Amino acid sequence: MRDSVVFYRSFYEAIKELPDEQFAACVRAIMDYGLDGLEPSSAGIAKSIYLMAKPQIDANNRRYQNGTKGGRPKTNQEPRNNQTVTKRKPNDNQSLTIPEPKEKDKEKEKDNVKDNNKKTFSPPAVGDVAEYCSQNGYKISAESFVDFYESKGWMVGKNKMKDWRAAVRNWARSQRQELTAKGSKPNQFHNFAQRDTDYEKLVQQNLAKKLREDMGDYGKGN
């Protein structure tokens, strides 16, 4: 039983020329079947019109029933055996989300960065030290510096030297401190103490000795 029925123009065109009584009987037959599913009980023009309209009314009723049930259920179509599933690729304007690394992976990455940042020490040549001293104004003997640390295996205390330029700066700084403490002229060899000799006094003594010798010779001549 329905609350409405579709009365098509084709139905009206088929019966509009009939006499009023037959017209009413045909309309009644269509509406009784469409609304309540009742078929005409007697033969005649009304039943003929009913038979003409019945397929369309049945189709409408099936669509109505399907609509009240929510429509035909959807089915997930799986690819056949001879079909391949194509994975969708992101568009150019879409960004890929990369999962963050785990804690262990982060620690390994940090260790790798530290290892890459470590510099391998290479002993300098005398020319390298001399050039560095000349550029920075350090008054030290590059040859003495290299000889000294080569004899120690390029060790600074108990540790392997990491930066020979820093060692040069410390060498020059130590030399300046020693010169300041002694108040003497720079010694080009850092590891040997400069002799404390008063050259001016020595010259005066030599001159006085020479003068006495000359005066002695003059006295003998007279």
From TrEMBL:
UniProt feature, compositional bias: Polar residues: 74-85
Domain DUF6291, first and last residues per copy: 4-73
Bias-annotated ranges (Basic and acidic residues): 100-118
InterPro entries: DUF6291
Pfam families per UniProt: DUF6291
Taxonomic superkingdom: Bacteria
Disordered: annotated segments: 60-122, 177-196
Name of the molecule in the record: DUF6291 domain-containing protein
Biological classification of the source: Bacteria, Bacillati, Bacillota, Clostridia, Lachnospirales
